[in-house]
Design brief:
heterodimer; A: 227 residues; mainly beta; Pectate Lyase C-like; 2 helices; 11 strands; B: 294 residues; alpha+beta; Glutamine Phosphoribosylpyrophosphate, subunit 1, domain 1; Alpha-Beta Plaits; seven-stranded antiparallel β-sheet; five-stranded antiparallel β-sheet; 8 helices; 26% helix
Chain lengths: 227, 294
């Protein structure tokens, strides 16, 4: 295992080393010590390596990730896994605002709670939150799946496109154009797979599904108040 | 963008280290606010103090203590620290002293029995060095690194703002109804002195506290009466409070141990505090008031 201590190694050097790993690298396991809330740890990776960050991270950890598995043994600051393309990011603690924002693919697992705007504008990423999520989550979410084992805050799924939202607990309020939808067998299968991959101890049948009412797709003067 | 740090000690044996811990936290937040920095520190002492600033301290503070003592007809002591002077006053002379000092062209940073405020334009590291913040002791303190948006980069535009005895407030964000609030507060006798939006929030809290609200109630009031983006951290002689607006765009992290409660705009500011590995670290919820009283 490669160990990089951010107390002695500059952040840019760490990211350069991680970004230089090729698909066939032999250095598949990395651990990062003393993150101390630094910004942009392990961003822009593009190799099937496993990176473990031991401590809390600041803004944008794991951003733009491709292929890599990044695990934060602590909590993550704003914008964790922002614009992820593929791979896996796992946060053992809590995540701050806009976790997984604009993510195109891959799996983001948050073992604790995520705060506001989780999955905002997500475009294909799968996000599984073991705890609760804050207000305005999945705002303008386009595709992908957001799974919440706990509760959701205000205005869930406001101006939602085609992302699927699954919540086991309560939803404080639904955003504009977000409605509860029927849970069909294919959704239960999808959810079972996501829960399994996220190591979540929950049954698909316990969740409710929310999605877009598709009333805001085209301007309609009768819906003017909802825009 | 701005940076906020705050530290409220529960363990009195840590008081000699308050300045040192706050200074490190403040400097860590330099890249959130490199244009000005300030700190309010709550130390010992029962005597009323007023902290003033002069751009030309050599002439501005020359003979100031004697002149003020004569004007107030009571004992005054003066401690000059860089561009600031801390004057001790006889009780009950605050309004008279304030008028005298303003008339003399000095800027009043704040008044308090335990609170002193030091703030200046410049990098946080330089501001901290000029005032010797590292060596200061006390029970709690609040610091701010400023990246100006709403008003000019001047000493008076720097935080913390103090608009009541032993009260201070720092702010990350911007208020959108501060012009209307200025008129409301002026009618109540709490007119802001600068064009800065944050001072309006400080005046608001001072007005609520003067009306008999406790710190928690005053902070709750900001959620109803102030519009805009804000993370506020406030101090009183015995209290320390935090509130974020309902949208909560401005970042905030808190940590609590048996020894202290700490606030940082980012976890980075808290990362070197003693015992942080075992601390409870959390993000304060939107539209939720947190406060501690000793």
């Amino acid at each position: 295992m490669q160990t990089i201590d951010l107390a002695t190694t500059p952040l840019r050097e760490l990211n350069t080393a991680l970004q230089a790993q090729a698909a066939q690298t032999n250095q598949t396991e990395w651990q990062i010590l003393n993150p101390k809330g630094a910004h942009a740890i392990a961003v822009g990776l593009d190799a099937p390596i496993e990176v473990t960050v031991r401590g809390h991270t600041g803004y944008y950890c794991g951003g733009m990730n491709k292929q890599a598995t990044i695990r934060v043994a602590g909590s993550a600051g704003p914008g964790v896994a922002e614009n992820m393309m593929s791979g896996t990011v796992v946060i053992e603690g809590d995540a701050s605002q806009y976790a997984g924002a604009t993510g195109n693919g891959g799996l983001l697992v948050i073992k604790g709670n995520a705060s506001s705007r989780c999955g905002i504008s997500m475009k294909g990423i799968d996000i599984v939150v073991h705890g609760n999520i804050g207000h305005m989550s999945a705002f303008m979410a386009q595709s992908g799946n957001l799974v919440v084992l706990g509760d959701a805050g205000d205005a869930l799924g406001d101006s939602l496109y085609e992302a699927r939202l699954f919540v086991r607990g309560t939803v404080k309020s639904l955003g504009s154009d977000c409605v509860e939808k029927e849970m069909r067998p294919e959704h239960l299968d999808l959810l079972r797979d996501l829960l399994d991959r996220a190591g979540a101890d929950a049954r698909p049948e316990e969740f409710r599904r929310y999605g877009s009412a598709r009333k805001l797709y085209h301007f309609n003067v009768d819906h003017a108040a909802a825009y | 963008m701005c940076g906020i740090v705050g530290l409220f000690l529960k363990n009195d044996s840590m008081r000699p280290r308050l300045g040192e811990m706050l200074t490190d936290m403040l400097i860590t937040m330099t890249d959130r606010g490199p244009d000005s920095a300030g700190i309010a520190i709550y130390g010992e002492g029962d005597q009323l103090k007023i902290t003033v600033q002069s751009d030309s301290p050599q002439t501005g503070f020359a003979g100031l203590d004697a002149d003020l003592a004569a004007a107030l007809d009571g004992p005054v002591t003066m401690r000059v620290i860089d561009t600031h002077a801390v004057l001790t006053l006889p009780d009950g002379t605050e309004a008279q002293a304030r008028a005298f000092l303003l008339d003399r062209g000095l800027r009043v940073m704040g008044t308090g029995h335990s609170m002193e405020i030091f703030k200046e334009v410049g990098l946080p590291r330089d501001v901290a060095r000029r005032f010797g913040l590292r060596a200061m002791s006390g029970s709690h303190g609040i610091g701010h690194t400023r990246m100006a948006t709403e008003s000019a980069v001047t000493t008076l535009g720097a935080h913390p703002f103090s608009t009541g005895t032993d009260q201070c407030l720092v702010h990350n964000g911007s208020l959108s109804n501060h012009n209307r609030m200025r008129r409301v507060l002026a009618d109540k006798g709490f007119a802001p002195l600068t064009a800065n939006d944050t001072e309006v929030a400080a005046c608001y809290l001072s007005s609520r506290l003067a009306e008999g609200a406790d710190l928690g109630q005053a902070l709750e009031g900001t959620l109803q009466d102030l519009d805009g983006f804000f993370t506020f951290v406030v101090g009183t002689r015995t209290g320390f409070g935090v509130v974020r607006d309902p949208i909560a765009c401005k970042p905030a992290t808190m940590a609590e141990t048996d020894d202290y409660v700490a606030f940082g705009s980012e976890y980075r500011a808290l990362a070197d505090l003693p015992g942080i590995e075992a601390a409870r670290v959390w993000e304060p919820e939107p539209a939720t008031v947190y406060f501690w009283e000793r």
